[in-house]
TrEMBL record:
Coiled-coil region: none
This protein's name: Phospholipase/carboxylesterase
InterPro entries assigned to the protein according to its UniProt record, in alphabetical order: AB_hydrolase_fold (IPR029058), Extradiol_RC_dioxygenase (IPR052537), Glyas_Bleomycin-R_OHBP_Dase (IPR029068), Glyas_Fos-R_dOase_dom (IPR004360), VOC_core (IPR037523)
PANTHER family tied to this protein: RING-CLEAVING DIOXYGENASE MHQE-RELATED
Residue ranges of every copy of the VOC domain listed in the record: 4-129, 149-265
Organism annotation: Devosia crocina
Gene3D superfamilies to which the protein is assigned, alphabetical: 2,3-Dihydroxybiphenyl 1,2-Dioxygenase, domain 1 (3.10.180.10), alpha/beta hydrolase (3.40.50.1820)
C-alpha cells in the first residue's frame, strides 16, 4: 500500500477571508468549488497545487457566519505545510506584510517551524522540510519559496498508543521519532501524522476554525473497498463508503475518535473541468435537489484580483447574491419564521433572474427559531418590539444606500410571512423608507395603524386562498391603500406556504407594478 495524506478538510465561517488567505497569501490554487455532498447548501472549496494532486489538497466546508468550534481531544488540531529549507524568513516577512497573525518560530523534530493563524484561528505551520515539491501555480510567490505540499497534521488522542497502532496497521504509516508528548507516523511519500497525547484535554467542539477530518491516500477505489472489508472485521469500527465523484472515500473514526477518511487518488478533479480551468465552475452533487436554486443560496467570493463585495457591519446580518448579468435591480429579502438570509433567494432569482439579491437575517429568536420581532403567543405580538424593529429596518435601508449605493429607483423589499409582517408594519410606521415592496402571506400585526402618507409607494400582496391568515393580510392591504399606497392584491391557490405560483406573480408585477 502506498501511504500518505490525500487531503485535509476544515471548516470556515468567512469564505472571502478564507480565499484571500489560502489562495492569496499562501498562493495555493483553488482547484474545485462544489456544493457539499452531505449538504448541497454548504459550499465546499478545494485548494492545492496546479494539478490538484493528492498530498496538496486543503479543503473547506463553508459555514458562512457559523459558530466557532474549539480544537480538543478527538480532533485534528494543527495543519502543517511544507516549504523549502531556508524559506522561513521569507514567509515571516510576508506574514507581517499581509498582517497575518504570527505565533512565532521554533524547532519540531529537527525542522524549523513558523506558526501562523488563519482567519478562523486555525494553527497553520509552515515547516522547512526537504520533501519533493509539487507544481504550484505561478503568482507573486517566488517558486523557490512556494508551498511544496502538505507536511502533516497533529491529532489529539486520549488513547495515543491505540491511535498510533490503528493508523499504522490500516493506512500504511510507519512509526517514526518521538518528541515529548508527540508520536510521529511517517508515510511512504514523507508526510506525517503527529499523534499528541491529549489525556486530560477538553473534548473538541465542531465549528468554524476547526478541522473536520484528515484523508489518507489509497491508489484506487478497489484499495479503499479492501480497507473497508478489513475494518468491518473490527466490531468497534463503523465505516461509511461513498462515491465522491472525484474519488472514492471511506470514513471511520480511529480509537481516539478523530474522523479519518481514506480517499482514492483517482479519478481526480479533471473529471469535469480541464486542467487549465480547474476551480472556475461551481458544481453541484448529482443528487442535489433543484441544483440551480441551491447555487443561488451559496455564498459568493472573489479570487485575489477579482471584484468582490466588501461587506459592511450593518444593523442586520446580510448576504448578497450577484447574478452573472445584473440589471441594476436590488431586492432585499426578509425571511419567514425559522428562516435565514438565503431562504428567499431561489424564489427571488426565479422572479427576477438579473436582480442582485440582498438577504437579511432577523434579530429576534424564540425557542431557538429566527424571527423579526417578539410575540407573546399565537397572534399576540409585542407592539414595542414591532415598532423598534421597524425603526431598525428603516435605518438599515439608510445604511444600505450609504454603504453599497444601489440604484435608488431599482431598490425594493420582499418579505414572506413573519418578514412580510415586519415589512408591512415598517411601511406604515416609516413612510418612504422603501418605495416598492412585495408582501407574501402577510398579516396586519399593528394594534392600530398610524396616520401615514404612502403616496408614491407600490405594494404587491400575495395571499393564499386557504391561508388561515388571509383575512389579516386583507386587513393590511386595506390599511396600506388607505394610506395612499398603490396596492395590488393577488390570491393564489394554496395556504400559507410558498408555491410555484409566487415567483410568476412577482415576475409579472415587477414588469408592470401598477394595480
Amino acid at each position: 500500500m502506498t501511504s500518505g495524506i490525500h487531503h485535509v478538510t476544515l471548516i470556515t465561517g468567512d469564505v472571502q477571508a478564507n480565499v484571500d488567505f489560502y489562495a492569496g497569501f499562501l498562493g495555493l490554487r483553488l482547484v474545485k468549488r462544489t456544493g457539499g455532498y452531505e449538504d448541497p447548501r454548504q459550499l465546499h472549496l478545494f485548494y492545492g497545487d496546479y494539478a490538484a494532486s493528492p498530498g496538496s489538497l486543503v479543503t473547506f466546508l463553508v459555514w458562512q457566519g457559523g459558530s466557532s468550534g474549539q480544537a480538543g481531544a478527538g480532533q485534528v488540531s494543527e495543519l502543517s505545510l511544507a516549504i523549502a529549507p531556508g524559506s522561513v524568513g521569507y514567509w515571516l516577512e510576508r506574514a507581517l506584510t499581509h498582517q497575518v497573525k504570527v505565533e512565532g518560530t521554533g524547532q519540531e523534530f529537527g525542522e524549523t517551524v513558523l506558526r501562523l493563524r488563519d482567519p478562523d484561528g486555525v494553527v497553520v505551520k509552515l515547516v522547512s522540510a526537504d520533501l519533493p515539491a509539487l507544481s504550484m501555480p505561478e503568482g507573486g510567490i517566488p517558486v523557490e519559496h512556494a508551498i511544496r505540499r502538505i507536511r502533516g497534521v497533529t491529532l489529539l488522542s486520549e488513547v495515543q498508543e491505540e491511535t498510533t497502532a490503528f493508523l499504522a496497521h490500516y493506512f500504511g504509516f510507519r512509526p517514526g521519532p518521538v518528541e515529548g508528548p508527540v508520536h510521529r507516523l511517517v508515510s511512504d511519500v514523507g508526510d506525517v501524522l503527529d499523534i499528541r497525547d491529549a489525556s486530560g484535554f477538553w473534548l473538541g467542539v465542531p465549528g468554524t476554525g476547526t478541522v473536520d477530518h484528515v484523508a489518507v491516500r489509497a491508489p484506487t477505489p478497489e484499495a479503499v473497498e479492501a480497507t473497508e472489508r478489513e475494518l468491518q472485521k473490527r466490531n468497534s469500527s463503523l465505516t461509511n463508503l461513498h462515491d465522491r465523484h472525484y474519488f472514492t472515500s471511506l470514513y471511520v473514526r480511529e480509537p481516539g475518535d478523530v474522523l479519518i477518511e481514506q480517499a482514492s487518488d483517482g479519478p481526480g478533479f479533471t473529471l469535469d473541468e480541464p486542467l487549465e480551468r480547474l476551480g472556475t465552475t461551481l458544481f453541484m452533487p448529482p443528487d442535489a435537489p433543484d441544483p440551480q436554486a441551491t447555487k443561488v443560496m451559496l455564498p459568493q467570493f472573489g479570487l485575489p484580483g477579482e471584484e468582490r463585495v466588501v461587506y459592511r457591519d450593518l444593523i442586520y446580518k446580510h448576504r448578497f447574491y450577484a447574478p452573472d448579468h445584473p440589471d441594476g435591480t436590488t431586492i432585499a429579502l426578509l425571511h419567514g419564521t425559522g428562516g435565514n438570509e438565503t431562504d428567499l433567494m431561489p424564489l427571488a432569482h426565479r422572479a427576477a433572474p438579473n436582480a442582485t439579491l440582498l438577504g437579511l437575517r432577523g434579530r429576534s429568536t424564540e425557542s431557538g427559531v429566527q424571527r423579526w420581532f417578539r410575540s407573546f403567543g399565537p397572534s399576540i405580538f409585542d407592539q414595542k418590539d414591532i415598532r423598534f424593529e421597524s425603526g431598525a429596518l428603516a435605518a438599515f435601508f439608510d445604511e444600505v444606500r450609504s454603504a453599497y449605493r444601489p440604484d435608488p429607483g431599482k431598490l425594493l423589499a420582499l418579505g414572506y410571512s413573519n418578514g412580510a409582517n415586519l415589512l408591512g408594519a415598517a411601511l406604515l410606521l416609516h413612510p418612504g423608507f422603501i418605495r416598492k415592496a412585495v408582501l407574501i402571506r402577510p398579516a396586519m400585526v399593528l394594534d392600530a395603524a398610524p396616520e401615514s402618507d404612502l403616496s408614491g409607494t407600490s405594494v404587491l400582496i400575495i395571499l393564499g386562498e386557504t391561508d388561515a391568515f388571509r383575512s389579516q393580510g386583507e386587513a393590511l392591504a386595506k390599511e396600506l391603500s388607505s394610506a395612499g399606497a398603490s396596492v395590488k392584491t393577488e390570491v393564489i391557490a394554496g395556504g400559507h406556504g410558498l408555491s410555484e405560483a409566487d415567483h410568476k406573480v412577482i415576475g409579472k408585477w415587477l414588469e408592470d407594478p401598477l394595480p
